[in-house]
Amino acid sequence: MISFLICYGTGEGQTEKVAERIIKVIRERSHEATAVNTDEIPSDLDVKQFDAVLVGASIHAGKHQSVVREFVKTNRDALAKKPTAFFQVSLSSATEEGRTQAAGYVEEFIEDTGWHPDRIGLFGGALRYSEYGFLKRLMMKQIAKRTMPDVDTSRDAEFTDWDEVEAFAADVAAFVEGRLGIDPSDSNGQEEVE
Questions:
Q1: 53, exposed or middle or buried, with CB in 10 Å at 0-12, 13-18, 19+?
Q2: What per-residue confidence (pLDDT) applies to 148?
Q3: Are 82 and 50 within 8 A, CB to CB?
Q4: Residue spans of the chain under pLDDT 50
Q5: How far apart are CA 84 and CA 105, in angstroms?
Q6: What are the residue boundaries of the Flavodoxin-like domain, all occurrences included (predicted)?
Q7: What pLDDT was estimated at residue 158?
Q8: What is the pLDDT of residues 8-37, one digit of tens each?
């Protein structure tokens, strides 16, 4: 059995929902998965205790959460020694036209942190108009009308492709299993014997 740490930052909860779906897929493969919100990192959290680490962040005003960047910078050496993945949640990833911009955010993150994850996933986010204050709701409606003209701005909208999230999680798990020499068909998760 492999132990995964999924450490994420979330602005309005969509990245947390993505992290939860990733955990579900990993656990279905008989592995352990622990989720930690970067806003609530326990003082005794030790990245070295996990076999693999996934880090997730959302984009707000063109930036990732600073606590996620700091987590990666602080743990960069430990992350470099194990299988890792990064997933990003943004409205940019919700459209084909925005994918280039979304990829640019990842490049900036990698350059800023010096961390090079083994796998990267880009997922569409959500618009939670019902949870925004007046000014933010107005601003987000204007952005949505400009970038996604077909979106109904009178109600909340979710753009996450859950099949894509599950495929990413399965790919990351398979990659880690292969890297650590774990046979996924062995229900006990024991290492392969040749």
A1: buried
A2: 65
A3: yes
A4: 188-194
A5: 18
A6: 4-167
A7: 78
A8: 998 888 999 999 999 999 999 999 999 999
Tell me the one-letter amino acid at 154.
Answer: S
- CATH (one of 3.10.129.10, 3.10.310.40, 3.30.590.10, 3.40.50.360) for 3-125+160-180: 3.40.50.360
For the chain, first and last CA: distance in Å? 18
Query: How confident is the model at residue 95, as a pLDDT?
Result: 74
Angstrom distance (rounded) from CA 50 to CA 11: 25
DSSP string, 68-123: HHHHHHHHHHHHHTS-EEEEEEESGGGSTTTHHHHHHHHHHHHHHH----SEEEEE
pTM over 0.90? The answer is: no
What pLDDT shows up at residue 19?
Answer: 97
The Cβ-side half-sphere exposure at 148, using a 13 Å CA radius, reads 21
